[in-house]
Amino acid sequence: MVAKAQGVFAGMPLARLVFDQVAQLDPVAGKVLLHPMLEDGAVVAKGTVVLELEGSTRAILEGERTFLNFAQHLSGVATTASVYQRAAGDGCKVLDTRKTTPGQRLLEKWAIRVGGGSNHRIGLWDAVLIKENHAQAAGSVKIAAQKAIAAVAPGTDIILEVRDLAELESVLGLRLTRVLLDNFAPGMVEQARAMRDTAGAGFGLEVSGGITLDTLPAYARAGAEFASVGALTHSTMPLDLSLLLEGL
Predict the structure, then answer these.
(1) CATH for the stretch 2-84+237-242
(2) Beta carbons of 75 and 13 less than 8 angstroms apart
(3) Which residues are designated catalytic?
């Protein structure tokens, strides 16, 4: 199995799962020996052999496409996460979102970490994220945040989205994990960082909303400590991998 493009490889544990399923159909002829040539997170160049498989042609080809589909997609996610994290630099963590492929959220979020990115929340249950609809329903971002703080156990992450500097100012004294600056320009992020630091607030600053590879460095320089990017999972291109049969 060969890489046909440069990128970050992810998905090796799935090879064993896939070919174990093939072997269950025929415990003798269906057995495939796997010889990984690298580990997840390795940077591969075009032509790099990532995995050697030994077994019957039928058994190998029965599992080939399933494994390639997983590995190509997850390697694409890991590669994209790596590219974005390098663009952000050391002071800004690139986060994924819940915009994941149905049924593959845990795999894609694992691939984000393989590529050097970081995970946002997994679902609705592991952190409170207060967005504009919640603020509208509660009456304001401050009221929504206060209700959330009162309702959840201490230590629960609370992330609050604000739409402008006035909303940020209103929550500077609250116990929040992060404040999400939605659709802020880099100049506004710089002002938000100054406001947060001057007030001595303990929360991190996250940017979101149309963050691209071109604009990400400017946000990092402006003081963003986190950047959430849905494109890491919903728009990533697969890493091209190919299976080549050799001597019989």
Answers:
(1) 3.90.1170.20
(2) no
(3) 65, 99, 131, 161, 182
Which tokens hold the place of 138? Answer: 């509660």
166-182 as b/e: b if 16+ CB within 10 A: ebbeebbebebbbbbbb
CA 89 vs CA 42, 93, 143, 181, 217: distances in Å:
19, 8, 35, 19, 8
* pLDDT (0 to 100) of residue 40: 98
Say how many C-beta atoms besides its own lie within 10 A of residue 106's C-beta: 11
Show the 3-state SS of 27-90: CCCCCCEEEECCCCCCEECCCCECEEEECCHHHHHHHHHHHHHHHHHHHHHHHHHHHHHHHHCC
**What is the per-residue pLDDT across 119-174, written as a single tens digit (0 to 9) for each?**
999 988 889 999 999 999 999 999 999 999 999 998 899 999 999 999 999 999 99
Q: Where in the chain is the domain with CATH 3.90.1170.20?
A: 2-84+237-242
**DSSP string computed for 171-237:** TTTS--SEEEEET--HHHHHHHHHHHHHHT---EEEEESS--TTTHHHHHHHT-SEEE-THHHHSPP
Instruction: Say yes or no: domain 89-234 is CATH 3.40.50.2300.
Output: no
pLDDT band per the 50, 70, 90 thresholds, residue 248: low
Residue linked to tokens 């496409």: 65
- pLDDT tens figures, 196-215: 999 999 999 999 998 999 99
What does DSSP assign to residue 118?
B
Closest CA to 232 of 123, 111, 125: 111
Residue ranges of the chain assigned to CATH 3.20.20.70: 89-234
